[in-house]
Structures are given as structure tokens and as C-alpha cells.
Amino acid sequence: MVPRLLRCLFLVVPTEGSFLVHGKAMPSLQTTYLVPVLCICACNWLQGPYFYDIYKSKYSAEDQDRGVRTVYAVGYCSSMVSSFFAGVLTDRFGRMRGCLVCCLLYFLSCLSVHCDQIEFIYIGRMLGGVASTLFHTAFEAWLNSAAAPEEVKLAVERQTFLGGVVAICAGGVATSAVKYMGPLAPFDVSALFSAVAFVCIFCLWNENYGMLQAQEGGANVSSGMFSRGKCATYCQPSLVCLALAQVTFEGVMHAFIMVWSPAAKEAAGHSGHAAISPGLIFSMFMASIMAGTQVFSFLSSQLGFQPRYILVGVYAVGAACLSASSYFFDRQLVLIGCFAGFELCCGAYFPGIALCRSSLIPNSIRASVTSLYRVPQNFIVIMLIVYGGELGYKSRLQFCGLSLVLGAISVLMLARSSVDRKHKAD
Predict the structure, then answer these.
(1) How confident is the model at residue 88 (pLDDT cuts 50, 70, 90)?
(2) 257: helix, strand or coil
(3) How far does CA 219 lie from the centroid of its chain?
(4) How far apart are CA 314 and CA 302, in angstroms?
(5) Looking at the whole model, is its pTM more than 0.90?
């Protein structure tokens, strides 16, 4: 893993001529794409662990639990609602502009925690929800238009791998920031990273679009693209399978985020051993994600497996790990091992699903369709926030395992589909 890390870090250093945008030589793809993307990843990881404490401090003691759940729900509702139009507007007005708006919204969201009024906290979470939608749609859409398929594959693999490195480093940076600058410092550092990403995108990127203004004019362009996006999503069997596969895995992933820490503590109590530090477990998870990326790279590059076939195994192993974890609540180490196995599957999932989207979604509506995929995903998360507390940890893990079985069936149908078209130049 260390040689892989050094190689990825070396490839982030600017080199000339390895990347073309509209026929012009640009710095390397690793510089122009990965640097701002990893800055936004750092922005998310820096502030994520401190959301709960900051939001809790805005409420009285008796309203803290309900208030924090409300704030989280506001963020996911904002992300869900924005998924209906963010991708459409990104395809219409430009992917680079969408990425710049994402950075700006993250910046404002980070600054909102300095306000004591709860209304500004809600506004900050709404801005963060829209930014999250843009981060998961505009960046990928820009990359697929600006780079060749081989470069896209390398970029998404390195993004996942280096994202684990960023997450581990962000934990240390956030801890030091709180120690020397106060509890709001992680949000200030996050705002700085979003500003750096904004500058990098503004200076290094060229704009690209989905459906160009020359194709359709006037106020009907956005509605037309939205209609095409809906048609592509619900009418093509391959995209329906892709949507179901993404929604099941990422819905399970969000449910797992809410479960793993309290479940590990409960398992420690049942086993009679001292609880393992959550920070150590988190580092183990990030290392597992990095290992999963290497597994995907080996299977796809060295053995020649198609991403969709790799994903069938990823879903199956993930389902087995989460289902098995529900039966080992009296064995802390075995439980954490199952969780680490699921995180390894996450490391292989992200580049795999990104490459499936790259090959199946038409470029003209790429951001629109990808954005629409996030609507049911965010709805699932909202339901988990509102009603998930009524289920025990074991039941939730079993439900996650069954959901991944459904996802595995969807990916298997996708893998067997005869539709294997490229829409890079439609």
C-alpha cells in the first residue's frame, strides 16, 4: 500500500501536456481534477465529526436530541430537493460553474456555524445540502467531458484511494485545530479548503456543458433537459438497474455511518473487553477503503474484469459482511472485522460505480441523471433519521444486508444486459 500511496502522491505533481481540454495542453489531470476534489473531501471530513456537538450547543438541554435530528434532516431534505434541478442547471449552464457554486456554498455553510441564531444554522445546512448534490454530480460530469475514458478510470481510482489518506489526515488536523483555536476551528479550516478548491477550479479548468445553448434556446432548455433526464432514467433498463444499484449501496452506506460506532460500543460491553477507540476503528476503515481501491484496480487493470462484474462480487461480499455482523454482537473484534470488510467493499464500489455511470449515462444529460439518482437515496436517509431509532442495531444491519442482496441482483442484471453503449460524444 505504501508504494501505491507514494505513486499516487507523485502523480498529483503538475506535469505538462498529459491532458487536453478543447484541444489545448493543460497541466496533468491529477493536478486539475484531483487537487480541488480532494480539497472538498477534506472540507467534508474536517467538519463532519464536529457537526453533532456544534449543533447540540445551539439548543437547550431538553431539545438537543430532537433539534440535532431536525438540523440533519434539513440538510438531507435540501440535498433531495436540489437533486431535481441542480444537475439540470449544471448541464445547462456549465459543469465548471456548478463546481464553483459548490465551493462557494460549502464556504458559506462552514461560516454559518458562527451564528447563534438557529435560523442561520438551518440556512447553512440547506446550503451544505445543495453543495453536496453538486459535489456528487458536477465534478464527475466535468471530468467525463474533459478526459479520455482511461484517464477517467485512473482519476476515480486515485480519488477514492487518496480520499482515504485525506480522511485520516483530516482527523489529525481537526483535532489540532480544536486544541489550539477552539471548537469552531474545523469549520474555519474547511472554509479555507473550499476557497482553495474554488481558486484551483477557476484558474485551471475550462468550461464544458451538457446540452449546449446552440442545440436548444430560450427558457425551455432546462425543462427539456429535465425531461430527457427523466426519460433516460426511467425508460432505459440499464439505467434503471444502475439507479437501483447506486441507491441501495449508498443508502446502506449512510445507514452504516449511523450504526457502526454505537454498535461497536455495545459489542464491547457484551464481550467484556475494553472498547476499541473510535478513532482507531475509523483509521482501520479508511485503510480498508484504500485496500479496496487497490483490489478494484488489480481486478480491472491486471485481470481485465469489467467494473459491473466486479460490482457483483462487491455487493455480495458487502451483504455477507453486514449480515454476519448482526450475529457477532458478543465478539467485538469479529464485529469490527466484518465492518472493515464492508469498508473494503466501499473502496471497490466507488470507482466501479463511477465507471458504470461513465459508460452508460449520456454525456449531454450526465449531471441531470446523476443528480436524479440522489433523490431516492436522500429520501432513504431522511427516513432513517426520522424512524431509524425505532429499530435496534442488529435489525438495521440485517436490513442493510438484505438491501445489498437487492443491489447485487440489480448489478447482475446490469452485467448481463446487452446494452453496452458509450455516450461520450452524443
Answers:
(1) confident
(2) helix
(3) 32
(4) 17
(5) no
